Amino acid sequence: MTLSLHKIILPIANIYQMEVLFQSHYLKVCFNSQNTILHTYWQTQADMEEEDYRQVLLDYLHWVHITLASKVIIDARKSTYSIPIETQKWINENIYIPAVAAGVRRLAYIISEDFFTQLSLELIVEDTDKEKFEDVFVQKFFTQESEAVAWLSQD
Questions:
Q1: pLDDT, tens digit (0-9, with 9 covering 90-100), for 86-127
Q2: 126 in a structural domain
Q3: Domain at 69, CATH number
Q4: Domain containing 142: what range?
Q5: Which of 42, 70, 71, 91 could link 152 by a cystine bridge, Cβ 3.0 to 4.6 Å?
Q6: How far is it, in rounded angstroms, from Cα 120 to Cα 80?
Q7: Looking at the domain assignment, is residue 71 inside a domain?
Q8: ∠ CA(148), CA(47), CA(125), 5° rounding?
Q9: Cα radius of gyration rounded to whole Å, the chain
Q10: pLDDT tens-digit readout, 6-18
């Protein structure tokens, strides 16, 4: 009895059961129907225009609304865009509030090794209007996707 490589690899590949919903140059959006986590992979570039970055954010928000996911991973390890202060405020008003209204309750950031990108993400989290989201919305930083998935999978 010989097992084909296909039969061995397929079950391993389906552990996460992720479906790619959207993919662009800067963003890949996947949904895991098994654990209902929306996985987003960001590849925003340091030299991109602010208007383009905001469009990527709106694309992300579109998929939050479509999937109604309550748990989201923002994997920013390949992101090098440093978010300007004005855009950080815009994100809080135009992305966070609608995402929470759509049902997002836990947001896990997998952080970039780029210092300025990491700092700008941390400033957004710090600047989030915590009183509006208290007891409803929790954010946490991770360095590994497996840690983020484990945290989001807790009840």
A1: 888 899 899 989 999 999 999 999 986 655 555 555 555 555
A2: yes
A3: 3.30.750.24
A4: 20-146
A5: 71
A6: 10
A7: yes
A8: 35
A9: 16
A10: 333 333 334 457 8
Report which secondary-structure segment, H or E, holds 72. Answer: strand 71-75
Q: What average pLDDT is seen over the chain?
A: 82
Q: Cα–Cα distances in Å, from 114 out to 46, 79, 90, 102, 117?
A: 10, 8, 22, 30, 5
| Domain count of the fold of the chain | 1
Judge whether 33 lies within some domain. Answer: yes
Closest Cα partner for 89 from 65, 58, 124, 47?
124
Task: Using a pLDDT cut of 70, give the percent of the chain over it.
Answer: 74
The answer for residues whose C-beta is within 8 angstroms of residue 85's C-beta and 6 or more apart is: 123
Assigned domain for 25 exists: yes
Sequence-ordered alpha helix ranges (H) in the chain: 5-13, 50-67, 85-91, 97-101, 115-127, 130-133, 145-153
